[in-house]
# Entry
Amino acid sequence: MGIYLDNGYLDIEKILSYKVPFNFIIGGRGTGKTYGALKYMIEHKIKFIFMRRTQTQLDTLRNDEYQPFKKLNEDLGWSIHPITITKYSSAFYDCERDKNGKWKPKEGAEALGLMVALSTISNVRGFDATDRDVLIYDEMIPERHERPIKDEASAFFNAIETVQRNRELEGKDPLMVLCLSNSNELANPIFIELKIVKKAMALTQKGIEVDIDRKRALALFILRDSKISQLKKDTALYRLTRGTTFEAMSIDNNFEDLVGVRVVSRNLQEYKPICSIGEITIYKHKSNKTYYVSMHKMGSPEEFTISEPDVMRFRKKYTFLMDSYLFDNVDFEEYACESLFRKYIYKTI
# Structure
């Protein structure tokens, strides 16, 4: 399943050819995910929505120096620019300069795409995008320094519902969603809610780039084999950062939450379950003060969902697990277990 063009950049046409409604395209820094997606939309006259996580990010992209079409305009001689529509939204138009030197839509030009933020899409009054066929969610996975959005996965699903409305009930094809991100954390809010963290990690470990689940209308693309990544190894930045976590994430597409894991195999008969949260169950050894985290649930442990109140209750009651983890007294059945454990014990979902 080749998903790259001859020049090494991502082949968006190939991705869309699978005709899967929800596409998560992860990794492959600098492999043309955003560039290729926007280029395809314009060249094929597809009406689209471009979404980022926060309003701050969207406001930055309204600036001509940072707007998503800047490189495309330079490379292809286009003149596509964002025009502010409301406080919370903009639209992309084929533009020209007005008498004051500011960009304005050319006469008769229609909006090529809409630009919104996940955190504020619900504030866009009367938002009707049922004529849009593709939603591009850029930088879907937050970097570690970014603030989480409360109930981020639910916000994402509600945004899709807002855009899609009843189009399938009216006989139209479902909205095509392209979620793009670099190799940050596989245990991100959307993957956790969809319970695909384990699958994504397994694909990463096995070096599998494409996984299609038509029953769930879901496709995972874990970009690993683009020759662009290999060519970047000899650039100045990656010579400087050779051997660092940054290089591992950017070039080798090793995710941040696959670093430093303590994966071992333990006999669950030697442990008793104390609690479960989301996909993981936490066990305590019967004869010492060590713990084991597994994807398998045995017995009748106390159960917590991944709702914010339940996560807070879990942290308050089992705060000692944080100390046990820091002192290397917690082992894990697989990569996904430690990644999820860290997320639940430390961070907001």
